[in-house]
């Protein structure tokens, strides 16, 4: 009987430690599963007691999927993946920088809401609880994007993820190269100017002489406004 009482006391202490370590965003439920019997005395005299985690509700594995580079004028899909694992969803929000432009709240009617933002064209019919679609993206949309996922009561747990995106605008014209004069003598320095306009980010310029890439060249870049 004494051994059984000690076992129960150990069980209570262990359960107390577990309860103290439970955080505000995890809900734990306990059930009976282990029975301790008295080794001596009346066989009908038994003590039972146990503890165990039946289920854990939490928001986890939140990932923002954003392409590193997209071409200007195309359609962009931003995907915010997450696992609720039994937790109720409160909201999903998308930001460009610190400016919110899309929100999904399942309890609202309608559940989707768009906030006006320069150059941001949200396709509401192609957006949902985890994906937002932007049409005709332009270079002004280059920057950091964030998604914020929040679980509803009783968790009230929020996770934010971010990723950087570059919208590439190809040059509208072929590069133009100019030299100071047409003829040079052996050993003379050649100064050439190559201009590539209307591109974003600035073009990477490579020089060739008779179709052979110039391995060493002293280059000075001037960035011009389009």
Automatic annotation (TrEMBL):
This is Ig-like domain-containing protein. It holds the Pfam family ig. It comes from Rhodnius prolixus. It comes from the Eukaryota. The lineage of its organism: Eukaryota, Metazoa, Ecdysozoa, Arthropoda, Hexapoda. InterPro entries: Ig-like_dom, Ig-like_dom_sf, Ig-like_fold, Immunoglobulin_dom.
